[in-house]
Write a structure and sequence with these properties.
About 30% of the residues lie in helices and about 35% in strands. By secondary structure, the chain is an alpha/beta fold. The radius of gyration is 27 Å and the shape is elongated.
């Protein structure tokens, strides 16, 4: 969208995050809008024009888009949170050969000697989490899709671990492909 926007700004973009959690929605929209603004694009988080988590009726959405001069819309939604248990089998480490001159249970030193040289880590299981998001860029005037991308975040510790890197990737890709750029 080589939008014209105002005489002194880039294209006007609406940023929409579809989420069940309003805090996550606002965080994502704010961070993406801020990142786009740093690139010279005029971007609004959708919660600024529609605070409700409820879906906006199409007629009202079209009226808001026309009223604000929005030229493009970026919509991001959660595709999947995949959780898998990963099993790591036990391992045995031999640091040196035990003193075979001493019986294993025959003396304290035999037991000590064997235990000191051969150690085991028990097997364990951990959860591997993959969060998948899809982001689409639409032309506001004809609703045509301009670009689509999917991202995956592996083992995030929280929402911030998903939002930050995803926003960075989205903006990098849109700028690289020259899909959103400021008015010169």
């Amino acid at each position: 969208v080589a939008g014209e926007g105002d005489a002194d700004s880039g294209p006007h973009v609406l940023v929409v995050a579809i989420a069940q959690n309003d805090t996550a929605r606002r965080m994502f929209e704010t961070e993406l809008a801020n990142a786009l603004t740093k690139q010279g694009v005029t971007a609004w988080p959708s919660y600024e024009i529609h605070a409700s988590m409820e879906q906006l009726p199409k007629e009202k959405a079209e009226a808001l888009i026309a009223e604000t001069g929005i030229e493009a819309i970026i919509v991001t939604r959660l595709l999947d949170i995949d959780r898998k248990d990963v099993y790591v089998p036990p391992t045995t480490y031999v640091s040196s050969y035990p003193s075979y001159g001493y019986p294993y249970y025959g003396s304290w030193y035999g037991y000590y000697s064997y235990g000191y040289t051969v150690t085991q880590d028990p097997g364990y299981t951990y959860e591997k989490v993959t969060v998948s998001l899809e982001t689409n860029l639409y032309n506001a005037s004809d609703e045509a899709i301009i670009w689509s991308g999917q991202s995956q975040t592996f083992d995030p510790k929280g929402v911030d671990d998903v939002i930050g890197p995803t926003v960075e990737l989205i903006v990098e890709e849109l700028v690289m492909q020259k899909l959103l750029h400021p008015k010169k």
